[in-house]
Amino acid sequence: MVFRGDSLIPMLRIVVAKPGLDGHDRGAKVVARALRDAGHEVIYTGLHQTPEQIVETAIQEDADLIGLSVLSGAHMTQFRRLVELLAERDSSDIVVFGGGIVPDEDLPALTELGVAKIFTPGATTSEITDWVAEQFPEE
């Protein structure tokens, strides 16, 4: 837990990752910084990570959340594999969210897979940090 002003908020461990061949990580770095500024511990895995590497990092780091940034169009494949691997490793309690170029028509399918939230282009960092705070309210 961390004090922010007069309130106590939980400090979460959040893995931010760029899966696949996507080589643009500026947005992921901006989100990682915003989450750090909101008082969370952020582990940024870097570019070109496989879902296996991301899940392994999340488990080793005892992460509460995994945030994927996908701009390559492979969001359905990447999120599906990540969620499957979490289930195989008995780690489905790690909340998965993401952002990037994701068509609106794919959002329901991602929700069915177990992805908690997708932030599409134009989402602000405050929307992301506020959503994280809502998902893990003060206990």
From TrEMBL:
NCBIfam families the record matches: acid_CoA_mut_C (TIGR00640)
- Start and end of every B12-binding domain? 11-139
Positions in coiled-coil regions: none
Q: Native species of this protein?
A: Nocardioides marmoriginsengisoli
Report what the protein is called.
Cobalamin B12-binding domain-containing protein
Q: Superkingdom of the source?
A: Bacteria
Q: Which UniProt keywords apply?
A: Cobalamin, Cobalt, Isomerase, Metal-binding
Q: Which InterPro entries does this one have? A: Acid_CoA_mut_C, Cobalamin-bd, Cobalamin-bd_sf
Name one molecular function that GO assigns to this entry.
metal ion binding
